[in-house]
Amino acid sequence: MRTSPPSWSAARLDYALATSREEQRAPLAIYLPVNYPNRAASREALLRAAEHADVLELGVPHHSCPMDGPVIRQAATQALAGSDGFQMRDLFAAAVELTARTRTALVAMSYWEPIRSYGATAFTRELAAAGGAGVLVPDLPPHAAPLWRETAAEAGLYTVALAPRHASSARLAELGETTTGMLYAPATPGLTGTRLPLSPHLPRLVRRLREATGLPVATGVGISSPQQAAQVSCFSDAVVIGSAVIRRMQTEPDAPATAAAAACRDFAQAVRQARRPAA
């Protein structure tokens, strides 16, 4: 487990987590697919989201999204369509602009196939140079994992992992050895975008992951309302929102960036008001 940031870009994530701890709150992370609903609107939406988010999770659109529900799948399909459909260079361009114009930390979320097709070495180097702090690859194949972790580390990127809900002690030990930056815990069972009650066992899961790995634990997948975000922020090290913001954008197709900003503001207010005692 890494104890110091590997690069200036990764240090932005550490700073966001540390600053939030000092303010006795959980940082807010917002997931948005790059180029959704189109390149221009995506650029504006990301900049507006950064006004409220401590971390932006930049999604790499892909045709196959096995862990995502219909909201993110539809957004990914739209981002890939049209004359300005997503290309990997759009991810790096978005990161460059966000790094230059905001203080928000940046993490990329991508399935393995787009990274493999682009080239893992080129992907990690270009993302780090653009200001990315780390990468979450939820479907990383076991055979590719060792080389991927080495490649990311050489570029100065954190390797963020999605923890299984029922991880064994051995699996937790492995996560502690191979994950850097932070760990990602699912808030609800199933795909992203579900609107289910939070599990009463979630606080214990977060505590177990944190104690076993020594890493900050971000909670996402299924947090659908500001009320749920406030609840999670009382025990998690970060709160990740994705489908709920995209869903708001879908209801206002003529002003998606304004809708994204309003949704992010609502979640940010909820998280910041749910202050917790200092550790």
UniProtKB/TrEMBL annotation:
Keywords tagged on the record: Amino-acid biosynthesis, Aromatic amino acid biosynthesis, Lyase, Tryptophan biosynthesis
Top-level taxon in the UniProt lineage: Bacteria
Record SUPFAM superfamilies: Ribulose-phoshate binding barrel (SSF51366)
Gene Ontology MF term list: tryptophan synthase activity
Pathway: Amino-acid biosynthesis; L-tryptophan biosynthesis; L-tryptophan from chorismate: step 5/5
Catalysed transformations (reactions): (1S,2R)-1-C-(indol-3-yl)glycerol 3-phosphate + L-serine = D-glyceraldehyde 3-phosphate + L-tryptophan + H2O
E.C. designation(s): 4.2.1.20
Signal peptide: none
Active site: 57 (proton acceptor), 68 (proton acceptor)
Pfam families according to UniProt: Trp_syntA (PF00290)
InterPro entries recorded: Aldolase_TIM, RibuloseP-bd_barrel, Trp_synthase_suA
Broad enzyme group: lyase
Keyword Amino-acid biosynthesis: yes
Subunit and partners: Tetramer of two alpha and two beta chains.
Family the entry assigns: Belongs to the TrpA family.
PANTHER family in the cross-refs: TRYPTOPHAN SYNTHASE ALPHA CHAIN, CHLOROPLASTIC, TRYPTOPHAN SYNTHASE, ALPHA CHAIN
Function: The alpha subunit is responsible for the aldol cleavage of indoleglycerol phosphate to indole and glyceraldehyde 3-phosphate.
Name of protein: Tryptophan synthase alpha chain
GN (gene name): trpA
